[in-house]
Design brief:
Strand content: 5-15%
Number of domains: 2
Mean pLDDT: 88
Strand order of the largest sheet: 7-6-1-8-9-10
Low-confidence stretches: none
Oligomer: single chain
Structural class: alpha/beta
Distance between the termini: 28 Å
Number of helices: 21
Helix content: 40-55%
């Protein structure tokens, strides 16, 4: 089955002439909050043949209940173009879904007094005219989906709200047995057009074919296959996942974009992602080995793993994994204490007692006397661990202070003077390099 999804806007139906407008408009004029629509607007001031435009809600109210003889006053320029294209291609959508708008709930009577109020641009009253058109042209009964915003500051020009509205409506569309989904999304507000474009790809994927009008030849619409759009969306999603340090997710998405043999840029991205995945699994040694020459100097230092573990804890917090964030921050400090005395078989308590003047280091003293004591009890009761609990166990109250305390503990143990965990780790540069490469990556079209 083929389905065609169509958006509607304020110029989808126009008047060929204004000969009957005055009489027909007078029949509904006094039922309207605004009475400033007595004269249709000429599309081209120098050419009456170009037709006249009227706000969609008004056009529907005036012509919706008229007999068919008056329908000849109307022209459907964009829909006629699409109809001819289907005719030329000898294909026909078996199911037609039309998106209409109704903002009645967010504009009160006082606002409707003004002809520029977006309320008058709603297309919901065009239902009978569109039913007539599709029956006449396609011998089809279209389905109508109404976008009806409920919040006054979130009309159909609000991008986020419109995306939610379109998503809700698309959930009602049965995906079974669909072969091709044609989508004509140019009409309507930019927010509607964008939302329909995005959600049709999200819902129907490679089944989508965009049927759009040609900017330079309006009478010659074109099909655009969905893979072009899908690749763009996947690349944007990969960038978003990279911000969350989800390297496996990034690799999965990019593999779908790389068809055939990868080029040098793609190979570089792939290699860096493989390193990042090792690091994300706390396999720091294999990660550093893969980094080769750039990591050689750091590998000679006994303390480098501790800083990587601490940075992984910071990343886990960014990902919302508070338990692992707490675990890696403990692990980083305790691990360095043991690594500092690798040949010793003494207990952690004994090793700490031998650290020089540890009682005078405020950060390490808190770690030893507060954080360590609460660690075991916390790990036995990890359900519902809030972010603030991570900070409290280190006697801090925010992310910045927590990171500083962990870093100061590491610097105390190692004798280093790093000013940030980013500067102390190999992974930070890998992530930065990945971000730069993916930001500048160009799709193969």
């Amino acid at each position: 089955m083929n389905m065609w999804i169509v958006t509607t806007g304020n110029s989808d139906i126009i008047l060929k002439h204004d000969k009957n407008w005055g009489n027909l408009y007078s029949e509904v004029r006094y039922d309207l909050e605004c009475t400033e629509f007595a004269s249709p607007i000429q599309k081209d001031p120098y050419n009456k043949e170009a037709g006249y435009t009227v706000p969609p809600r008004i056009l529907g109210l005036v012509y919706g209940n008229q007999s068919d003889e008056y329908k000849s006053d109307l022209e459907f320029p964009l829909l006629d173009t699409y109809y001819q294209h289907f005719l030329d291609k000898k294909t026909k959508p078996e199911r037609i879904v039309i998106l209409l708008t109704d903002q009645a709930e967010i504009f009160d009577e006082d606002q409707r007094l003004y002809e520029k109020c977006p309320f008058w641009q709603d297309t919901c009253t065009l239902t009978p005219l569109l039913e007539w058109y599709f029956k006449y042209k396609f011998d089809s009964h279209p389905e109508f989906l109404y976008l009806t915003p409920k919040t006054t500051d979130r009309g159909i020009d609000n991008w986020n709200q419109t995306l939610v509205l379109v998503q809700e409506k698309f959930r009602t569309l049965d995906c079974n047995f669909l072969k091709t989904v044609y989508v004509s999304h140019q009409a309507g507000t930019p927010a509607i057009s964008s939302a329909v474009q995005f959600m049709s790809l999200a819902r129907f994927g490679k089944q989508v074919k965009f049927l759009v009008s040609n900017e330079y030849e309006p009478r010659e619409p074109i099909f655009i296959d969905s893979p072009i759009y899908l690749k763009g969306l996947q690349l944007q999603e990969a960038k978003a996942l990279l911000e969350r340090f989800d390297y496996s997710g990034v690799k999965r998405l990019l593999k779908q974009l790389w068809e055939g043999e990868v080029n040098s840029q793609e190979q570089k991205i792939k290699d860096l992602l493989d390193m990042a995945i090792l690091w994300n699994c706390a396999d720091f040694k294999k990660f550093a080995q893969a980094r080769e020459k750039l990591a050689k100097e750091r590998l000679d230092e006994w303390w480098w793993v501790g800083y990587e573990a601490a940075y992984l804890g910071m990343v886990r917090l960014e990902q919302g994994n508070t338990v692992e964030a707490l675990f890696h921050s403990f692990r980083a400090v305790e691990g360095l204490i043991r690594d500092r005395n690798r040949s010793s078989k003494e207990s952690l308590h004994q090793l700490i007692s031998k650290l020089p003047d540890w009682q005078k280091n405020v950060d390490f003293k808190i770690f030893n006397e507060t954080t360590r004591k609460e660690r075991n009890s916390l790990f036995h009761n990890i359900l519902g661990l809030e972010e603030i609990e991570v900070f409290k166990r280190w006697e801090t109250n925010n992310k910045k202070a927590w990171e500083a305390r962990v870093l100061n503990c590491l610097n105390y143990i190692t004798g280093q003077k790093f000013t940030s965990l980013e500067k102390a780790t190999l992974m930070y540069d890998v992530h930065k390099e990945l971000k730069n490469l993916i930001s500048n990556y160009e799709l193969k079209i």
